[in-house]
Amino acid sequence: MDATAPAVKIRTPIYKLLYAQVLFAIALGAIFGWLAPHVATADWVKALGDGFVRLIKIVIAPLIFLTVTAGIAHISDARKVGRVAVKAIVYFEIVSTFALAIGLLVGNLVRPGAGFAAHADAAAVAAYAKAAGAEHPVQYLLNIIPDTAIGAFSRGDVLQVLLFSILFGFALMALGQRGKLLTDVLDQATLAVFGIINIVMRAAPIGAFGAMAYTVGKYGTQVLGALAGEIATFYLTSALFVIVVLGTIARLAGFNIFKFLAYLKDELLIVLGTSSSESGLPGLIEKLEVLGCSRSVVGLVVPTGYSFNLDGTNIYMTLATLFVAHALGVDLSFGQQMTILLVAMLTSKGATGVTGAGFITLAATLSSVSPALVPGMAILLGIDKFMSECRALTNFIGNGVATVVISASEGELDRVKLNAALSRGTTENATGEMTLA
Questions:
Q1: Cα–Cα distance between 85 and 65 in angstroms, integer?
Q2: Does residue 151 fall inside a structural domain?
Q3: What is the mean pLDDT of each run of 10 residues along the chain (437 residues)?
Q4: pLDDT at position 69
Q5: Which long-range contacts (C-beta less than 8 Å, at least 24 apart) are formed by 34-38?
Q6: With contact defined as beta carbons under 8 Å apart, do 301 and 406 qualify?
């Protein structure tokens, strides 16, 4: 064929695209849950969503270990690891502060919960926390060191696996050429794990259907109608943060936030369907590397961000705190609101990508500001599942943007790959598009 001939794109039918399948499954699940709530709340329906999330979780710890360890091992200068880590932590804290501040600002302007005339139910909150197996969020920071390496992997504790991976990576780096064989094995193992992920992702539409059907069937539309104002406020505030704050950061880094969201649409829909940002983590790591971010930066920033860069959780905590205060008729002073800001910067670091973790961390924030507010969390019990989806989406987007920004600051962002991938809107693997010379 003539090499000068124009490229011809062969497009895969839309019904074969993952994002279209997931979107259809979410819509179908919502309709099923609405029309047949008794069937939708059956154990087998719930198992569809929970089963998919579990399939994803089995590769989370191995994936973090392989990407972080191999990423560090490929770096010849140990100072670079420290530099990237410091940049990431500073970035996380600055952007987290913006998220917390936006939540406070919107909460004071809109005053969600005002006139709600709610009555606290301490027993309901205690039952929810016990069922979730909740641990005080600050305790996460004290439990970074695992009892055993195997224990960290078996529990899937992101911070503990991350610590072990960093230590292992530095050990390989110190071995130099002697560790090259093991580093090559880890690289090949990473490809195998991504192979597992590609197989598991075929079940994404089924998982999204089950999770959405069960949610709508269990909570119903009446819950949404009663507290729609708080849900709408949170979603709009999160959208404002993504478009304005993250959009500005993306623009300064040289890319468009809307093209970036289109590029990650498969993963965003999966996160939406499962209410867990962890379900999109494998795809995020793979796509960021395709986008032109270096493997070493991706391996360090993404896993760390899942514990320390939770923008959606930050917005939720400040906004939800004000909602509870307004609903209970408790006026918070400027000093108390500043306390919310400071305390939430710590408690949010314990909220991993697990569904419902943001609700538990809210308890720690409320108890630090005013213990009288904690029982008021029962007001949010009915809608937390719907809030959880928005938290997960915002956390996920924030970590993606952070990785691109830090890669750019390190001079390890391939702009050609970045522009090409964002122009296509997705990767070749995700769309099935081919270019014929």
A1: 16
A2: yes
A3: 46 70 82 88 86 78 80 69 82 89 87 58 46 47 72 76 83 83 86 80 83 76 57 89 94 93 89 77 87 86 80 86 79 79 65 50 66 66 70 90 92 90 62 33
A4: 83
A5: 34/216, 34/217, 34/221, 36/217, 37/216, 37/217, 37/218, 37/220, 38/217
A6: yes
**pLDDT value of position 4:** 46
User: Token pair of 420, please?
Assistant: 């090409």
Amino acid (one-letter) located at 430: A
User: How many domains is the chain partitioned into structurally?
Assistant: 1
What φ, ψ does residue 276 adopt, rounded to 5°?
A: -135, 125
CATH of the domain at 401: 1.10.3860.10
For residue 156, which of 83, 262, 62 has the smallest C-alpha distance?
62
Range of the domain at 273: 8-436
Residue 250: predicted pLDDT = 94
- Please report, as a single letter, which amino acid is at residue 320: A
Sign of the torsion angle spanned by Cα atoms 315, 237, 119, 115:
positive
Cβ neighbourhood burial of 169 (10 Å; 0-12, 13-18, 19+): buried
Buried b (16+ CB within 10 A) or exposed e, 305-328: bbbbbbbbbbbbbbbbbbbbbbbb
Q: Would 267 be classed as within a structural domain?
A: yes
Q: What is the pLDDT of residue 218?
A: 77
Residue 355 is predicted with a pLDDT of 45
Q: At what angle do helices 311-328 and 384-409 cross, to 10 degrees?
A: 140
What is the rounded CA–CA span in Å between residue 249 and residue 185?
37
Does 2 reside within a domain?
no
Distance CA 307, CA 313 (A): 11
Residue type, 285: I
Tokens 């610590």 — which residue? 163
CB of 433 closer than 8 Å to CB of 10: yes
What pLDDT is recorded for position 244? 94
What is d(CA 213, CA 48) in angstroms, rounded to the nearest whole number? Answer: 10
pTM above 0.70, yes or no: no
Longest dimension (CA), the chain: 75
147: tokens are 């009892």
For residue 398, is it within any domain? yes
Pick the closest to residue 84 from 256, 293, 290 (CA basis): 293
Which residues, including other chains, have CB under 8 Å from residue 229's CB and lie 6 or more apart? 112
